[in-house]
Amino acid sequence: MYPYIPNTPLDEQEMLKAIGLESVDQLFEDIPKDIHLDKPLNIPESKSELEVSTYLKSLAEKNCTLSELTSFLGAGAYDHYIPSIVDAIISRSEFYTSYTPYQPEISQGTLQYIFEFQTLICKLTGMDVANASLYDGGTAVTEAALMACATSKKDEIIVSTGVNPESRQILKTYAHAQNLKVVEVDIKDGVTDIEALENMVSDNTAAVIVQNPNFFGIIEDLKTLGEVAHKGKKTSFIASVNPISLGLLKTPSELGVDIVVGEGQPFGIPLSFGGPYLGFMATKKEYMRKLPGRIVGETTDLDGKRSYVLTLSAREQHIRREKATSNICSNQGLNALAATVYMVTLGKDGLREVATQCAKKAHYAYEQLTKSGKYKPLFDKPFFMEFVLESHKDADELNKELRNENIVGGYNVSKDYPQYKNAVLYAVTEKRTKSEIDKLASVLEGMK
Amino acid sequence: MKVVKGLYYSNDHEWVKVEGDEAYIGISDYAQEHLGDIVYVELPEVDDELEKEDAFSAVESVKAAADVYLPVGGKVVAVNEALEDDPALLNSDPYENWIIKIQLADKAELEDLMSSEDYEKFLAEEV
Q: How distant is the Cα of B107 from the closest Cα of chain A, in angstroms?
């Protein structure tokens, strides 16, 4: 008898008798004796539920959480407010225990919320079609590049160094495996160097990828970058965007973007030590057949009732796998639901409010932190909710001192951009208060 | 199963209709029948240079997707854009509704293909 295995010894005997055997060992006679395990497994003794929860709690308490710290860390993951309705909805077991919606007759709930998610992502970005989501923002960037290569039958990808370094690493990993060429275009004064890009784009270019706001928080000139990208024959212009910024900025579709991707974590998903997050992707109708991952469509059943199904799957993983744009056969269902609940809870005005507060508070912080001249802005360009400051000391040292004051400082930019020494990228969300920002300013000001 | 006389046929169930140095290419009645209701036809671009055996199109039906291979090499001079709006034309009349028209690169390649009579025999063995 083992815990969690409900068969009693009597049950075992009856089952063995039914198949004409005497013992469990007889049942496994086919397995050679020399590979039998003849001793107990080398794992600790089992524990009671109370012991397990006490032990796990002690492990969890070793972590610091943002309930006791104030965070100014962003760089791709943000400490935004999550309305309580998000957790309430995604905690319904119908949602969080559901499986892949391959059988529409038993998956209408899942299919419907994915359809809603796609609709909202389309509205947010101004695009025609969105997929059911991808693993995270970095994967979405990469999958968009692969889609551009598949549609243009070309293999060169140009990516701005203003794109999140992690996304670029994922892109390079995939590109290496698929024999695609990745070329980086540098930034100049904090934004993608348009002149350099002009010299790089050719008829061999499958895609030009930029991020907006870029890794340094600065707003890129998407319209002009798109025009340059489109000088290549069948070149796709891809933008990785912060979805919160779309509460204030023009939609990517208005600015000539062909494929919009991004990290959906700011939409109701907790930081959770870096994941699981949510990649989103939206594009124009003409790319629909090459769109990776799942797409849910709305139709009617035999009785004419509205219903939802996975659609356009022929271009996907089920058949002709070697031809598929992507081999990711999954999506981030529960996080897509969280983002959906977040979007419908806030609505258009709510999202604009969040974006406005982020921008205003970030600009207030920028003024406070640069006032004395001790910390200098690295770039002088319009930004959304993040900005880079150069300081007199190493960023890690600086952050260590901030931690003593229960503040999580900004991102150490020199880790990925060695040319910017002692540079820190600060993020300010709508959750930060004036007193928290003032405290950050005064602690920084007092540093030796 | 309809087989039109005077065309060349390939083992992959494509047909070739030669007109001078150019040729129309499509899929046979057998091919459309086996695919079922066709919902999408992916077309190449005009001026694409293609070789014999290259996949130049993909035809998606409600139950499958199949690549369409070029029976003879050449340069694409026209694509049947009507298929973009109404892919089911391939079901209703696969011989009337060609997929692409090419400038033949090497007419000798036609000799490797089957005549309509050979193709009918080929089908009889398939079934």
A: 28
